[in-house]
Amino acid sequence: MTVTPAPAPAPAQMLPHTMPLCPNGRLALFAIRRIGAHGLADAHAAHAMLNGFGEGFRRPLILMRALMADLATSANGHISIAPCCCMRMTAAESAVLTVLARAETAPEMARLLLADLLGVRRIDGVLASATALAAAFADAGRPICV
Fold this sequence. Notes:
Layout: H1 11-14, E1 17-18, H2 23-38, H3 43-53, H4 58-74, E2 88-89, H5 91-102, H6 107-118, H7 124-139
Antiparallel strand pairs: 1-2
């Protein structure tokens, strides 16, 4: 008896969301992907933030690192990220960007989405990190939109 391999899922199923049209969302996504794949001290993420924010890059970079550390330590499961070259997003990446976009305007929605993403109920610290990062982007004139 021969066994045929199961068909691979279509790329649209693995990466169901399109990249954000907003350049600020793209910058945040790039930093999330680089830091998620290469660690908190990734030079490419730091360079992208320097190019995006100029002299005021330190606050958003440090807050991005803090958010990524909080996500990694608080998650009850895996948070999937795509390689930097992908022009589509995973569901988890889309959720993180939506949390960042809604953290200040719709905090309850952001809280529920973040709790679903992390698989835990108490997400106050992670939500505070996300809100601080969203505020840093907005204060620099680069609000994250999805």
